[in-house]
Q: What sequence folds into this?
């Protein structure tokens, strides 16, 4: 289960809306082992594409080092789908490599409604999980 | 002196859980070969058909080795090599 504060959900949705029709992506860091997303980090989509995303490798190094220095880990890794539902694509599953992360998908397919779902992706197996939004 | 190699969570099954290991070599390819001797299986997760896998980012100190010389990038004692899984998808 993913438990996440309302303002972090709002930030992910706002980022996804802002970058639409390209995919938006980012990380929410939290203390190692806490499973608590706290620090919102919007990342550059190096692909700048409506169908792909990839963290810029240099930005990723900087952000991952910063997390390391602060004893944090990527609790949430999010990206948007801009023309399809909020379900991991085959490429999403192929690349997923953070066993402790919640993979959050935001769909901006509908202009007036946002789909927001969370998954664990481990060794090619996708498991959807419940999301609890707290104030 | 040796070369420090920082290992991401997903690959720590090959290093008995260690976050960092040490190795030697004159190039990245040699360093990975040296690590493979003590951490069997690691090489296959990093290299495919003589090139770095697309799924991983490897950095020499502060540079992505893709912008240096890939597997032929020279490495030396005191360097730090960082491995991170690429974060990407569709």
A:
């Amino acid at each position: 289960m993913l438990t996440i504060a309302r303002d972090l959900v709002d930030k992910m949705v706002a980022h996804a809306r802002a970058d639409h029709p390209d995919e938006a992506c980012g990380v929410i860091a939290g203390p190692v082992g806490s499973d608590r997303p706290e620090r919102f980090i919007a990342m550059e989509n190096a692909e700048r594409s409506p169908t792909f995303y990839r963290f810029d490798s240099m930005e990723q190094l900087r952000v991952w080092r910063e997390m390391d220095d602060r004893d944090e880990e990527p609790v949430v890794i999010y990206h948007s789908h801009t023309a399809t539902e909020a379900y991991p694509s085959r490429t999403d599953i192929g690349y997923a490599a953070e066993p402790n992360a919640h993979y959050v998908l935001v769909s901006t397919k509908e202009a007036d409604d946002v789909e927001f779902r969370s998954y664990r992706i481990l060794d090619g197996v996708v498991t959807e999980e419940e999301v609890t939004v707290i104030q | 002196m040796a070369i420090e190699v920082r290992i991401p969570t997903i690959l720590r099954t090959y290093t008995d859980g260690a976050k960092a290991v040490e190795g030697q070599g004159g190039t990245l390819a040699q360093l990975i070969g040296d690590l493979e001797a003590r951490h069997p299986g690691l090489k296959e997760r990093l290299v495919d058909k003589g090139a770095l896998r697309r799924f991983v980012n490897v950095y020499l100190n502060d540079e992505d080795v893709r912008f240096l010389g890939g597997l032929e990038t020279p490495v030396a004692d005191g360097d730090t090599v960082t491995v991170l899984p690429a974060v990407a998808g569709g």
Notes: Strands of chain B lie at 3-6, 20-23, 47-48, 51-52, 56-60, 63-64, 80-85, 88-89. Chain B has one domain: 3-85.
